[in-house]
Design a protein that fits this description.
The chain has 720 residues and is α/β, with parallel strands linked by helices. Helices cover 28% and strands 17% of the residues. It contains 21 helices and 23 strands. The strands form 7 sheets. A 6-stranded mixed beta sheet has the order 9-14-13-12-10-11, with helices on both faces. Strand 12, helix 17 and strand 13 form a beta-alpha-beta unit. Helix 4 runs parallel beside helix 5 and helix 16 packs parallel to helix 17. The longest helix is centred in the N-terminal third of the chain and has 24 residues.
């Protein structure tokens, strides 16, 4: 069904409704209209990394872990699997009259906000700090969720529009101030891509104000969305965000005025309670019926596109796809691609035959919560790191386990009088009796996440710094000084201060929140059943002292593209077992009409010959004795425009495999947009003739070169 056909049907249906009936459809829990055979429908469902909060579903790795794969094909495949499960559950639940919250096929995912500051608790819901990577993964996840059939498989939603990334405690009244340059250069590209390339069906507004206007009623943001980008779907408020207009932002004085402001700006659907006052605003003469009608038509256009009033092929998706073997295998593959090896002195991969006793220590070693992140479903099986190691080594190796410490409290047992930690002596004992120690530290959704959803009340889900909780710092100091080889596994959704681990551990792994069964995948990687290939989608700084104030939304000195210091572990960094080298990089072709003069072409992948892009070829060598796979990355820097992004920016990535001692050649297509720069007025254009292009398996910065021992290949490109 085309959008035009769906809109026509929606218009005809809405024309039969009374004003009361139309108003009832603009709330997230939409009433049934029995005389028109319209069932009740709850618009609120979540699918960040699997169908969430509605019972059993495949729990894929958290979004930030998906980002670490740098694999957009995988993101689309996961999105398609999630949509299948959402449809299967919807088919069964609606058949049984269950139309409750989290049971629908309008899913409020993905989160394509930029993870600009590692203190933000919700950063692990995103695809990291880079607009290009976020755009590529966001678009493909949307395509997976929505499918390519005559009807939408599910309706995806790009959120939170826009310029939104903490602090969580201030989000209901906070005003994020961003320059036009930062808006166009960093904060808006992923949303633009989701609209123009992904044809995302919905966009959700953020809680905060941006440059003075509440995001759910921002004329400036709506001009981008519906004006410049041509968005035709529906717009939904974040939950109870419209209430914030009068209670927190104080831009209106009462609910009826907030209703008027939101609907007239184009906010079609209210997650919250304020649109219960629509009829009040209408009867007072504050609100014209045309705005109610317009939003109602947009919402029913989506429902027709989903096939809610027709028979669709998706109606036959059986419940057996939920946690199917194929989906579980996909979740395992995603976890395997996501782990980032940050340090390895040669201890990895482990050889089971050389070990008699392994000590497994740490508050996240046997934690289910550390597997799943937030916005998750319920798995029928969880495999923690401890259990994964046990399954991998079998009965051949003895495992000694100690929790080591509470995740954040001083003691595990509330009645304990031990001032330094009541599991430290046990942890020391395990170290003494082990050949090596695997120390599993980090956070979980109770420590980093959304305001109100976490137990982290002092920071409302954000981190006050990059430091680990004091209980874990004590444990790390003790274990890392035990005299045995120690492998540190960090399970967090964000950057932490890993300087102690970097200094003293034999190996360090960033494991994120790897999904319900991810502990097995991690263990198999440690024992060499496959090699890690994950790359950091965020910068790991030395400490929060290196960062600007959390409330400062200027991009100066933020993220790898603007950072002026030396990170601990850079964006794009990640080791593997073996090493690949870029031995050559050359320009092969230029497709389209050249780069100059304006760079105004859409943000595309350059997969089709009629798209403007630069084609290069990289020559890659594997000097080792084993086949190696890794993620090739290409970065570009405008050398001729003084206001260009100061550091080289990611513009292409792709997975390559090279046989032992062999060579491979990879074609690279750099989109025209990558050559553009943004001026102070927020105007994007190609402004220079001179560019540097870098290709390697990391970012082209001194710290990455020191960590990997390999420089990136660099060429200069002159546009005539």
């Amino acid at each position: 069904m085309t959008r035009q056909e769906a809109r026509q049907k929606a218009s005809e249906l809405v024309a039969q409704m009374t004003i009361e009936e139309k108003a009832s459809q603009l709330r997230f829990g939409a009433d049934a209209i029995e005389r028109l055979s319209i069932p009740a429908y709850n618009w609120w469902n979540e699918a960040l990394h699997g169908v969430a909060r509605a019972g059993t579903a495949t729990v894929f790795p958290q979004a930030i872990a998906m980002a670490a794969t740098f694999d957009e094909d995988l993101a689309e495949e996961i999105g398609g699997s999630v949509a299948e499960e959402a449809r299967a559950k919807y088919n069964e639940q609606s058949r049984r009259g269950d139309r409750d919250i989290y049971k629908g096929i309008t899913v409020w995912s993905p989160n394509v906000n930029i993870f600009r500051d590692p203190r933000w608790g919700r950063g692990h819901e995103t695809y990291g700090e880079d607009p290009y990577l976020t755009s590529r993964l966001g678009v493909r996840y949307v395509k997976g969720l929505q499918g390519d059939g005559p009807f939408l498989k599910t309706a995806a939603c790009a959120k939170h529009f826009a310029v939104h990334s903490g602090p969580e405690a201030e989000r209901h009244h906070f005003n994020a101030v961003a320059s036009r340059k930062d808006m166009e250069e960093t904060y808006l590209p992923a949303f633009e891509a989701c609209v123009k390339e992904g044809n995302v069906e919905a966009v959700m507004g953020a809680y905060n104000r941006t440059n003075g206007e509440p995001c759910c009623a921002s004329r400036e943001l709506m001009q981008y969305l519906r004006g410049k980008w041509g968005f035709e779907g529906h717009f939904v408020s974040d939950c109870w965000a419209v209430r914030d207009f009068h209670e927190e932002h104080k831009v209106t004085s009462r609910p009826e005025e907030s209703v008027k402001m939101a609907l007239e700006a184009g906010c079609d659907l209210n997650c919250g309670c304020t649109y219960e006052r629509i009829l009040n605003a209408y009867h007072e003469g504050l609100l014209d019926e045309s705005y109610i009608t317009q939003s109602c038509i947009r919402l029913f256009t989506t429902r027709f596109l989903l096939g809610m009033f027709d028979e669709t092929p998706y109606d036959q998706i059986p419940y057996t796809v939920v946690e199917s073997p194929e989906h579980i295998a996909l979740a395992h593959r995603a976890a395997q691609e996501s782990f980032v090896l940050l340090k390895n002195d040669g201890i990895l991969p482990l050889e089971k035959g050389k070990l008699k006793t392994i000590g497994v220590i740490g508050p996240n070693a046997d934690s289910r919560a550390a597997l799943v992140g937030n916005y998750h479903g319920t798995s029928s099986e969880y495999i923690t790191v401890l259990e994964g190691i046990r399954r991998t080594v079998g009965d051949d190796v003895r495992i000694l386990y100690s929790q080591g410490c509470h995740l954040w409290k001083d003691n595990v047992e509330n009645l304990s009088q031990e001032s330094g930690g009541d599991r430290l002596s046990e942890a020391a004992t395990v170290c003494d009796y082990s050949d090596l120690v695997i120390l599993v530290v980090g956070l979980d959704e109770t420590m980093e996440g959304e305001e109100g959803d976490t137990g982290n009340a002092d920071a409302s889900g954000d981190k006050l710094s990059l430091s680990f909780p004091a209980s874990q710092v004590r444990l790390m100091e003790q274990v890392l000084s035990c005299g045995k080889p120690v492998i540190v596994i960090n399970m967090t959704g964000s950057a932490m201060d890993l300087r102690l681990a970097d200094e003293k551990a034999s190996a360090v792994v960033q494991a994120w929140y790897p999904g319900a069964r991810g502990g097995l995948d991690l263990a198999q990687m440690l024992f060499g059943l496959y090699a890690p290939t994950g790359k950091l989608p965020v910068t790991f700084y030395q400490s929060s002292d290196d960062l600007p104030p959390f409330t400062d939304y200027s991009m100066k000195n933020r993220t790898y593209r603007y950072f002026e210091g030396t990170p601990l572990y850079p964006f794009g960094y990640g080791l593997t077992y073996g090493k690949l080298q870029v031995k050559g990089l050359k320009v092969k072709d230029r497709i389209g009409g050249g780069l100059l003069p304006d760079g105004s072409s859409p943000d595309q992948n350059c997969e089709n010959l009629d798209e403007d892009c630069l084609v290069l070829e990289a020559s890659i060598h594997n000097p080792g004795a084993q086949e190696v796979s890794d993620v090739l990355q290409v970065y570009l820097k405008d050398e001729g425009y003084e206001l260009a992004v100061p550091n080289p920016s990611l513009c292409w990535k792709g997975r390559v495999s090279v046989p032992a001692g062999g060579d491979a050649h990879t074609e690279i297509r750099i989109r025209r947009r990558a050559f553009t720069s943004v001026d102070e007025d927020g105007v994007r254009a190609v402004r220079s003739h001179s560019f540097s292009i870098y290709a390697g398996f990391s970012q082209p910065d001194p710290r990455s070169e020191k960590l990997t021992g390999e420089p990136c290949m660099k060429i200069s490109y002159q546009e005539n």
